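pls ignore typos typing on phone
NAI + seq
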Amino acid sequence: MKIRKENEKLIVPERVTIPFIEGDGIGREITPVAQKVVDEAVKKAYGGERSIEWRETLAGEKAFKSTGEWLPAETIGVFREHIVGIKGPLATPVGGGIRSLNVAMRQELDLYVCLRPVRWFDGVASPVKEPWKVDMVIFRENTEDIYAGIEWQQGTPEAHKFLRFLTAEMGVTKVRFPDTSSFGVKPVSVEGTERLVRAAIRYALDNRRPTVTLVHKGNIMKYTEGGFRTWGYALAEREFGEEIHSGRLTVNDVIADAFLQNTLLTPEKYSVIATLNLNGDYISDQLAAMVGGIGIAPGANVNYDSGHAIFEATHGIAPDIAGKNLANPSSLLLSSVMMLEYLGWNKAAALVTTAMERAFADSEATIDLARFMPEGNALGTKEFGECVINKIKVL
Ligand code: NAI
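k done
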């Protein structure tokens, strides 16, 4: 049965259909493992009263082979209709066509938040001394900024035309090497900022998190990144003034470069992060590296107004290890945990998280993590899935 959105709320049936894209490369290995683990957790949590019916939908290489298209229109339609879905990593088509399947899906469904929770698991090796202090949830704006893809290559008639417009009509004199410059445009809007910051603040309040930090580079880019800061604070005051003045929530801001430094020095100061697209890209990867790398970093792309959400593995298709039963399914497993929480199935979500915590604490992991554990027991992809399932059974 399908999820519905009514009066701003998701209505999740007990037997819910969840569309999934298996993914290319290691997607074929990690997706079935994640599904088995989730099924076991749901069964254990709700004793058969709730269940997920997985509905496969095609994208990437698998879609191309059977339909001639990398992203069939039907796939977007299925995600639109079912509201919540999950995907493995996808190969980027080489030589034209869609630039990125992920970007295409985000745009089609206007998934304006890239959500990345980052936490450390006991037992997982980290390059920092106190990784347990890292516990943040990043809200990265997904639709604007320099990522909107408005740019012109140097030497083209378009770049010359744009330069003429800048100099003749806008009075710009600061282009250092005008004849050989490429140009890019960075749109950052009031609406785009407000919906992102609103989502971050609501998340913080719903999950009893103490702060929302706006991360920006407004000291230099005053109207775009500075606008993000100004509009973000204004929204916070206008819509959440009571929560802020009563001390339930602190909204503050920090400049992006200082933030990257501070996350290494005093990560415990930060909880929920709201930031623009490009900053969010760098921040997500740095924080992921601090807790064990992208192999275990989960993510989702969400539109909190329509309810649409696609949960995903954040790494790529790892062609170097595909088909060898070596891939770490943890990123997709933790994305599945996020999905269960989004559905309100928190008990099942907690079972998967606890089972994974126990696996890592027992030094049981796939080889990418196990090789850095002093007594690491390297398991294959399937065997790690079995290990998590066995731990769920005894919780
Ligand atoms: P990648 O993430 O596939 O691989 C980078 C390195 O990390 C490789 O050494 C790989 O073996 C390792 N790795 C990645 N995931 C792992 C896992 N779960 N367990 C163990 N090791 C893992 O990135 P790369 O090589 O830049 O991209 C390969 C392909 O994946 C490209 O076609 C790219 O477009 C696509 N890609 C897709 C993404 C998505 O669908 N979200 C994201 C990033 C890349």
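The pocket of NAI is lined by residues 26, 89-92, 102, 295, 312, 315-321, 327-328, 331, 368 (CB under 6 Å). The chain has 13 helices and 16 strands. more later
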